[in-house]
Amino acid sequence: MIAIQVDAIIICPANSKALVPALAKARDAGITIINIDNHLSPEVLAEFNLTIPFIGPSNEDGAKLVADFTLKDFPQGTQVAILEDITTATNSVERRTGFEKAVQSAGLDLVTIQSASWDQTKAAQITSAIISQHPNLKVILAANDNMVLGAASAVGLANMDHDIAIAGFDNISAIHPLIEQADVVLMQLETPLESIKRTAKIAKAANVQVILNPAPTPITAIPDNILSLVSTITPNETETYLLTDVKVTDLTSAELAAQVLIDKGLETVILTLGSKGAFIKTRNFSKYVSGFKVNAVDTTAAGDVFNGAYTVAVTEGNTLEDAVRFANAPAALSVTKLGVQPSAHKRQEIDNFLLEQNQ
User: Fold this and answer.
1) Distances from the Cα of 173 to the Cαs of 47, 82, 199, in angstroms?
2) Integer distance in angstroms from the first to the last C-alpha of the chain?
3) What is the pLDDT of residues 282-309, one digit of tens each?
């Protein structure tokens, strides 16, 4: 590029140090240089007396946001592993630092940090070794999505007796098959609306059912162009009022509110009514499904548990009504315990509870 006398070079370096000497030559040739995405090493730039403008994200802040979101409901002491890039690359160091700060802030147990060099195959091999060495591992934080794909492959083959949460950073197109091959995609509003929209669009194009739990309570309206991409929405009474301007006080008002959402393009609306159960509406079907009576202690996790259980029931091939009835059971059980994670009961406990209720 120096030889052909280009006017400018925009550089997105895989290595934050190696290209600096060549960029110094470009500067000396009068070429404008702009650094994007991965910050060139300040120390090496100083060695060559180079000042190059940088345009891009804060890798440390971004990684911490990803990790904070992923880790927020895990109890203290949960085991976490980090997959990083080349250990000396600036963006790798920043992302690792962001992950470490989040783990420390949450009081979790960081059992290992290992470099998979942005590589999917290497990430799969390393993840396999990690989960063999740390069988109680619950979370993997990966500094890019290629490593997420590798980690997901290894976890899928490991036949674990518990789930492992895997979080990445980049949202590269290679991650799309994980959405396209899913049975169901479940999302909620702690994810930015633009991310929800992009994910739902990919899922809908692949005929994958999209379930949206509009919680926490939305501060602003969810745009209709997002709702039209959603298959099923599961608001509680407060969320329903904010989405429809209809206050749900009985089954008649529940039907009216649900119809407002159906008119926005949704296929299925499930209004969760706390201890009273849930109200279902599709374009040609309405049904009230009663809840279960329990002694409530803490309702914090009820909505999350309902949505997770409903999604499981859908993937198991249950009818809409049966899936909602199933989801009502763990939601009811969840309010009998304090906390979020501890209130999510095991499948056998849920099945036993349903058997007791049917007797």
Assistant:
1) 37, 22, 11
2) 79
3) 999 999 999 999 998 888 889 999 999 9
Edge-first strand order for the sheet with 165-167 is 109-115, 79-84, 139-142, 165-167
CB 254 within 8 A of CB 279: yes
pLDDT tens track for 29-81: 999 999 987 788 888 999 999 999 988 778 899 999 999 999 998 999 999 99
Topology of domain 181-359, CATH:
UDP-N-acetylmuramoyl-L-alanine:D-glutamate ligase (3.40.1190)
Active-site pick, 61, 304, 322, 351: 304
Catalytic annotation present for 304: yes
Residue 218: both structure tokens together: 């939305």
Residues 6+ apart with CB under 8 A from 7: 31, 32
Q: Are 94 and 59 in contact (CB under 8 A)?
A: yes
So where are the chain's domains? 8-55, 58-170, 181-359
Q: What is the DSSP string of 5-49?
A: T-SEEEE--SSTTTTHHHHHHHHHTT-EEEEESSPPPHHHHHHTT
pTM beyond 0.90, yes or no? no
Number of neighbours of residue 54 by Cβ within 10 angstroms? 12
What radius of gyration do the chain's Cα atoms show? 24
**Whether CATH 3.30.70.890 fits 58-170:** no
Tell whether the torsion through CA atoms of 18, 20, 24 and 26 is positive or negative.
positive
Which pLDDT score is estimated for 338? 85
Report how far Cα 206 is from the mean position of its chain's Cα atoms: 19
